[in-house]
Amino acid sequence: MNIKTKIRNNCFSLPKGVNWCPVDTALRTLKESLHTLCEPMKISTLASEGYTLSQSINAEVSNPSFSNSAVDGYGFSGSTTEGLNEFSLISETAFAGAPFIGRVPQFHAIEIMTGASLPTGVDTVVLNEDVTLDNRKLTFSGKLKTGSNVRLAGEDVLRGDLLFDKGHRLRPQDLALLIATGVKNVEVYEPLRVGVLSTGNEVLEPSSSTKDDLDEAMIFDSNRPMLRSLINKWGCDVINVGLEIDDIGKIRQKLNMAAENCDVLLTTGGASAGRADYLSKLIKEEGTLFEWRIAVKPGRPLAMGVWKGMPVFGLPGNPVAAYVCTLIFFYPAMCSMSGSGWQEPQAFLVPANFQKTKLPGRREFLRARLNEKSEAEVFRSEGSGRISGLSWSTGLVELPDKALEINKGDNVKYIPYSSFGI
Ligand code: AMP
Ligand code: MG
Asked: In whole angstroms, what is the distance from residue 356 CA to residue 114 CA?
């Protein structure tokens, strides 16, 4: 089955008459328009961390696959000795990986190590430190419930149990579960190929320029390394489309190149309606642009469109706005295109450690971090060129579209960056 269908050119279109698009509307449109763009493939479980499952997975063996001791101690049959706490010790020992093959007779106990298979005749283990040994006579005080300190075969997972649904992105601990339950290979989606393009006459390629090149007019391209790292973290393949000057022909070439090699493209700069903003102009004239003047701060302009079947997220050039828009708009879209479905970032209500009067009209995302009392502090400036605030912060405070008076102690919505997998 070929699931790699092209994105419809009008998939981002907005209802007539909407000029400033509310964040929720933009997100809903993205959610409804996008779908998985990646093909399935089979890989070794050992190399599967960060990939998204294209099929659900069931256990091939139970965990544990055999009943064994949960502690270092002495094993006996509790079920046939009714609360007895005195046993004769047999001379053998059951080790992990070297089980005792034989039967432990009734009223007898065997020394057993953590992880050792339970010998026939053993269903209960008493802890090393709880026993007294006197000339092969083992005693302990009180009664021990039958089955104590034992891990029964399949008590965690039974062979055939569902381990993960399709769409789950595998984490390190998931590899442990897959390996423990005998799953050698998994069906996953190929990584989404995300192109990254920077535009702007003032922007310098950081790998081939130095601080001496920064005369009064130039800046380093700080967006592309940031976006490339984010995309890498999200398990996508980064396609470096490069850096381009504000030239319509050259940007067209880059878009064409990207459409050949990428599933989706992230650009920064030139997305607005200024005279040097060729990205939005090009997509509007030759692709399909829905220049969403999204009611978001920081963020507008954010041009979303389609170029030759490839979705394009035309992010603002300001690094803070580029970062925030990538998290808020691209992250859930990327999850959807990668096969894990639309993902809403997990948010927490925490008391504000700041005061702010918010105007109506735009959803606002403030760079924030939690203090030692788990209250949200916000960065001293809301300027979207203040890159240092991104490094200072550990998450975002999201303020609703409406006007709001926030006082210290009021609950605000805090979204840690970890909710975006970073
Ligand atoms: P633009 O969206 O092209 O109008 O750019 C908005 C602001 O972001 C301008 O101050 C640009 O110089 C700056 N900017 C654009 N691209 C980058 C980039 N790749 N890295 C850092 N800043 C940028
Ligand atoms: Mg520009």
From this structure: 58
Could you tell me the distance, in angstroms and rounded to a whole number, from the CA of residue 317 to the centre of ligand 1?
3
Cα(322) to centroid(ligand 1), Å: 9
Task: Tell me the pLDDT tens digit for each residue of 18-39.
Answer: 578 899 999 999 999 999 999 9
Q: What is the pLDDT of residue 5?
A: 53
Give this prediction's pTM: 0.91
Of the options 1.10.275.10, 3.40.1490.10, 3.90.105.10, 3.30.70.600, the CATH number for the domain spanning 42-63+155-189:
3.90.105.10
Ligand 1 pocket residues where CB is under 6 Å: 198, 200, 202-203, 219, 221-223, 268-272, 316-319
Residue at 409: amino acid letter: G
Which of 256, 247, 307 shows the shortest CA–CA distance to 277? 247
pLDDT tens per residue across span 175-211: 999 999 999 999 999 999 999 999 999 999 999 999 9
Q: Output the pLDDT for position 300.
A: 74
CATH, domain 20-39+190-338, list 3.30.160.20, 3.40.980.10, 3.40.50.720, 3.40.720.10? 3.40.980.10
Q: Whose CA is nearest to atom 3 of ligand 1?
A: 269
Q: CB neighbours (10 Å) of residue 28?
A: 12
What does the mean pLDDT of the chain come to?
94
Q: Nearest 5°: phi and psi at 273?
A: -110, 25
From 224, 268, 300, give the residue whose CB has the most ligand 1 atoms within 8 Å, as the site to mutate: 268
